[in-house]
Design a protein that fits this description.
Transcription Regulator spoIIAA; 741 residues; seven-stranded mixed sheet; five-stranded mixed sheet; alpha/beta; Jelly Rolls; 3 domains
Length: 741
Amino acid sequence: MAHVPGIRKYVARWAAEEFRPATLVNSLFSGVLIYMLEIIFVISFTALVFSGPMANQLPRALSFILLGNAILLGVLTLLSSYAGTIGVAQDTPGAILGLAATAIVTALPAQALEQQFATVVMMIVVTTLMTAVLFLVLGIFKLGGLARFLPYPVMGGFLAGTGWLLAKGGIGIMSGKNFGTELLEPQTLYHWVPGLFLGLLILGSVAYFRWSLILPVLLFVSTLIFYLVTFVIKISPAQLESEGWLVGSIPAGSMSGYPLGPDMVAQVNWDVLWGQIPNLVPAAVICVIALLLNCGGLELVTKKDINLDRELVAAGAGNLLAGLVGGLVGYHAISLSNLNHNLSGGKRLVGVFTALLLFVTILLGAPLLGYIPKLVLGSVLVYLGAGLLIEWVYKAWFNFPRIDFAIIITILAVIMFSGFLNGIILGLVFAIILFVVSYSRLNNVKYALPGGAIRSRVTRSWEEQQLLDSQNERFFLFKLQGFIFFGTANNISNQVRKLVQSKPAGTIRFILLDFTLVSGLDSTGLLSFSRILQWGEKQKIGLGLTGVTKSLRDQFIRGGMHEQPNHLLFFPTLDQGAEWCENQIIAETLTPASANPDLITELKGIVGQGKEVEKLLTHMECKEYVAGEYLIRQDDTPNSIYFIESGKVTARWAGQDQNEVRLETMGGGNLVGELGFYLGIRRTADVIVNEPSVIYSFSRQKLADVERVDPESANLFHQIVATRLGERVVHLLGIVENFER
């Protein structure tokens, strides 16, 4: 409990700052203003759901939807990483729920009003809870970034479609009619045309003046003008309500029927509700994207860092509680949060005050809310919808490539004329196509190099080195990367064929495909590699797959690619694959004798003095070693240097994780341990004998004796070591270059 004093200090500092008289008054004023906008937004989005035949149920539904919004706002205010966050029920899920509600009402008998209402309310509960769970899972497991994989034009098509549904819904709320020729009737036009112009006026004013209070001022002024006009032409509030100009009062008391109460649940038609699930699931996914977009926009306008995963958890918790009382899906409102930022500097107390005012509204029945003109509610929806259409249609024409713009328009058109679900399906199809097309353009071949540029860590004799240099294009390496599927695998196959065909026939003997940087391979991609193997057999080219993990190797074998000597081989590392290719080239060209020179022949090639070399060797101790025996152990004192007469040894280094790495393999004619011997530093690696070997050793004490009694042999020794060190530096530089590729 050591952290409790720290929490107390934080709360004390927060309370001292938030509850100063000047701050308190400012927060209260800001809360009242945001409360008024929250009321208008929530009623507008609720009216989207409860419209048409369900319009008379709007006041009844508002009671628990307002309660859900108050809970959402309170939780989000307290849990958000940004103190000034304001949450509200949102337009995007509201537009989709409006379509689903219409489908539910159509599917049920016209006289089954209670069943219609209960099923629509349960649809709201299911959607909000489903979205809450999705928010929580993504936030807790830090998976919010997954939503960003949706292609931008597809997301733009969804948002443009949402804009159309909002604008269409706003007109429907104001007119009380379905979207069609009925809207052109004279007695209907004057219900919705003024609201349409008001919505466009709000949109233009918000964009032009960029004043944070322009929206509430315009809504307040338009409400005053509405009642001033009705007063002048002497229309009473009762007549306005009967003619469909007003919302209608919310029932007094607390909530008008608990959505999850037994009476309400008993009225739900579950078969009809489950039939709408395909429409509701995409709504939850789109809410995730919209939340992340809003949080990103909020970071820009407030210049504050916002933890996206924490915001998902906060929104998830808020929606979980709100859903249990029938609240609509909600999350961060960038406009209201920015208003709070401008008015109060982003105080958390503003959100608390706003939530409390919403609770008071529900408890007192809010009779004044029934006098809000539908013209104002509809204009808000027209403003929001037109804003999305301008952003994702008009501006997209200038900002997006034509193919992306075509996708946006196509999805919008499908949503307009065929429904949101079909738009979602088309959007997913476009997303898959865009992924395949975009990913197939990526080059999975990081680079292709001839064998001369990727020597193995085997130190070759002088004659072998000359041979490999002269035949450096006998094998090629293709370094692969990323995830490989059928499209990109085919590109790899084409690049291999193009390279082979660009060389004279028979030049390339082996191809190495390195999978070290490959993250995965799908089953369809295996077919392209099988074709490479079959084509290589016809060209008499061997195929080596390097950097292949056990799981990847099993995948190749299940695909019918089994190891075949000289045709297909698997290697755990690229180094082993390169060594195999080098060995094959050497075996095909050199005789066994020339490929395995003795020590005297090799040293003669360095200094050109055969008798002197033989004389030098008489000063050394010769010993036979068996396979597996240690010649040098890591951290040993460097007392001797070794000359390999015959056989083979390998230097291996073990790191802190105890994983061994092969540094170098050396055969006859090579020196071992010269760096430690000359520098006097402890051995940095183990040197293990690979096969029966004959090795000469030369100790420090023996060298001192030779320098005293036979200086010519001592000088020859130093000349041999200096030459070998130079060759080793060149060899190691090649290794470093390979590591950097």
